Amino acid sequence: MKKKIGFVAVGQAGGNIGKLFEQKGFNVLYLNTSQEDLRTLKEAKYTYHIAGGEGCNKDRDKAKKLVIDDFDSISKEIYEKMDVSMIYVIFSSGGGTGSGCGPMLIDLLLDDISGGASRIEAVGAITVIPAETESVKAQINCYECFAELTKIGGIASTMIIDNGKGDKLRLNQSFVNAFCSFTEIPDRHKDERGNIDRAEIEETLKAKGMLILTRVPVKRSSTAAVLESFKSNIFAPIEPDRVIKYIAVSIAGDVDVEAMSKEIGIPVDIFATYNDKATICCLAGLNYPMTRLEAVYKKAVEHQDLILKNLQATSDSTLKNGVNFLAPTKPPLDASPKAKTSRRDLLKKYMG
User: Is the pLDDT at 305 greater than 50, yes or no?
Assistant: First the structure.
């Protein structure tokens, strides 16, 4: 799978996660508007400074403009360095460079795929939701970012790390370990009762919607323990709507997948194998974590007076991508795919 999956790590937060993947043997390209951030990646094989960038200071529109102006060079760098069939773009939803660039970069890469201009088959997202203790600006950026991300048609799975679940560096390491354990199943776990092959791993990863992973050691591996681990792990929480496309699981101990399905929803398909060390379970095709994003929205509107004060220099109180935190009702997050547009229209969408 390391030959099939590559990562484009955008911004400082994306770079921190990308370093862990590169240490595991994956191909990673680091993009940043800040030369200083790129210089901290001393052992990185591939880095690219987005032309004209000197950092974005949590300004999403500034990041978007830089990517638009330099996209031909960025895409050339990606296609030259990423000899893979699937790319995940890694970014923080609450920052500037990653939050501004991430969704638009995914949309642009998917546009190349649909136009036959790319050998890459799928593009997904790995993003981070800020903790509730982080700044109001981080909450606004997060909501704006997901308002864009959820509108992208054709996107593969989205994995969402919730910084409210603990220390950032520990969360990153736990995530990378879980992802690697999952993608290594075809090579490491063989059983006469059934196997999971690489094609099934790829199909799971390509499912649109949120994807979450868990790993439960064999000594405490049970149906109840696996279900509980999904509530307490590092990812954004599962919505209660019981929407799910795939369950892919390598079972250790006493785990009943049918009983799990009764709790989390009936999937389109189940891929299962067995091992004697730990239960590794992936749920794919889940709805985006709207309940968690509702909390992000509320955190922002709780500080309307502060937002007004900080935006006095603008002509109105509407944020540039159309999310108005001072309106009486919030704009909906829409996950429905949109009609095919031209590159010019696509760029206009992101710059308002």
Answer: yes
H/E segment holding residue 298 = helix 290-301
* pLDDT at position 23 over 80: yes
> How far apart (Å, rounded) are the C-alpha atoms in residues 107 and 212?
22
Q: For the ranges 26-30, 60-64, 326-330, which has the lowest average pLDDT?
A: 326-330
d(CA 111, CA 138): 28
Q: What does pTM read for this prediction?
A: 0.88
140: Cβ–Cβ under 8 A, 6 or more apart, which residues?
Answer: 300, 307, 319, 323, 325
Tokens 């960038």 sit on residue: 53
Contact 248, 200 (CB under 8 A): yes
273: enclosing H helix or E strand: strand 269-274
Helix segments in 82-234, DSSP class H: 97-114, 136-149, 168-183, 185-188, 198-205, 223-232
CA within 13 Å, CB half, 168: 14
Orientation angle between helical segments 60-81 and 343-351, nearest 10 degrees:
140
3-state SS string for 226-266? HHHHHHHCCECCCCCCCCCCEEEEEECCECCHHHHHHHHCC
CA-atom Rg of the chain in angstroms: 20
Return the pLDDT at 326.
40
